[in-house]
TrEMBL record:
Organism expressing this protein natively: Massilia varians
Gene name, Swiss-Prot/TrEMBL: tupA
Keyword check for Signal: yes
Pfam families documented for this protein: PBP_like_2 (PF12849)
Protein name: Tungsten ABC transporter substrate-binding protein
Keyword Transport: no
Taxonomic path: Bacteria, Pseudomonadati, Pseudomonadota, Betaproteobacteria, Burkholderiales
Signal peptide interval: 1-23
Length: 271
């Protein structure tokens, strides 16, 4: 009997060793730097990957570049925050099944010395004009990201913009721009999540917050498989569905940076 049990155990081991292993699928995601710099993706994606036997390869760039990668079929799905650009992307047939995922807000941050005298304001356009008029330095993302697009819109609406050496166009991600602003005693526009993650390192203070114009929604969009037959549309939709499911939304709500909730779930029916 003991010999038979050993034989059965050996047979079971051999069967397990030779059983086909399910291949791990790869999903390519382009996304804005705020989801990476804040630590959100490092928090969310391992849970999705474990649940779906997937590996999500993240390309973290500005929103403009993230949408360009999706337009070219270089990724399967994109997670960004520039609603007008997202709607144009879908309307032109590059993406399908856009869903609201979450939101946070933009804030103006700057040195404790507050050379433009804007601290405590809730009017972002008036504050931007005061920055320009005071000739205080301002560091811009300069990378066509969602933050960069919003900043440019604010300057246009304010009817003023810093000139010459007072305006630094960095062409960098949000975390690097916050570090630059701290080194240069300059102001910058940032999403709150990245600011909170970098606050201790930079020492920058919030100067302006709470203006409804500073609302910052995020959307997730699958690349249109009719345009790019090679994309992993099934995997893309798994990620879209999971991010907007009660599980994904609950995890977004529970994520904290520096002890603060920095993203708020907003999923609803696709539109």
């Amino acid at each position: 009997m003991r010999f038979l049990n050993k034989q059965l155990a050996l047979l079971g081991f051999l069967l397990a060793a030779t059983a086909p292993v399910l291949a791990q699928q790869v999903i390519k995601l382009s996304t804005t730097t705020s989801t990476e710099n804040s630590g959100l993706l490092q928090y969310l994606l391992p849970k999705f990957e474990s649940k779906t036997n997937s590996k999500v390869n993240v390309i973290s760039v500005g929103t403009g570049k993230a949408l360009e990668l999706a337009k070219n079929g270089d990724v399967d799905v994109t997670l960004v925050h520039a609603r007008a650009a997202e709607d144009k992307f879908v309307a032109e047939g590059h993406g399908v099944n856009r869903r609201d995922v979450m939101y946070n807000d933009f804030i103006l941050v700057g040195p404790v010395s507050d050379p433009a005298g804007i601290k405590g304001s809730k009017d972002v356009l008036a504050a931007m004009k005061k920055i320009a008029d005071s000739r205080a330095r301002f560091v811009s993302r300069g990378d066509n990201s969602g933050t960069d697009q919003m900043e440019k819109a604010y300057w246009k609406q304010a009817g003023a913009q810093p000139q010459g050496a007072a305006y630094i166009s960095a062409g960098l991600g949000m975390g690097e721009v916050l570090n630059m602003a701290a080194e240069m005693n300059a102001y910058t526009l940032t999403d709150r999540a990245t600011y909170v993650a970098y606050k201790a390192k930079t020492g920058l203070q919030i100067a302006v917050e709470g203006d409804p114009k500073m609302f910052n929604p995020y959307g997730i969009i699958a690349v249109n498989p009719e345009r790019h037959k090679h994309v992993n549309y099934k995997g893309a939709m798994q990620l879209v569905e999971w991010m907007t499911s009660p599980e994904g939304q609950g995890l977004i709500a529970s994520f904290k940076a520096g002890g603060e909730q920095v993203f708020y779930p907003s999923a609803k029916a696709a539109r």
